[in-house]
Specification:
By secondary structure, this protein is α+β, with helices and mostly antiparallel strands. It is built from 3 helices and 3 strands. A hairpin with a 2-residue loop joins strand 1 and strand 2.
């Protein structure tokens, strides 16, 4: 599978990224919050992340404490939080 497709799937799945520092119940509350209260900012972050990926600007997608982090060489060693 091409890297862009894999990265897109990882970016979308990142909405449900698990934070190991929280309990299962707290993670579920975060997921519910992402899909309700935080939906507008999630939509903006998701749109920008997928757009950047579609133009080849994302090298790697990682998760850190429940956040999706996009790694890109054009950022010269910096990381950009996806959503």
């Amino acid at each position: 599978m091409p890297k862009r497709i894999i990265n897109t799937v990882k970016i979308v799945i990142g909405i449900f990224a698990y934070n190991s520092h929280l309990s299962v119940f707290q993670n579920v509350l975060n997921w519910v919050s992402n899909l309700t209260w935080q939906a507008p900012q999630q939509a903006v972050g998701l749109t920008l992340s997928v757009t950047q990926n579609s133009y080849g600007g994302v090298d790697k997608v990682k998760y850190f404490d429940g956040a999706t982090v996009l790694m890109a060489t054009w950022l010269q060693g910096m990381a950009m939080q996806g959503h």
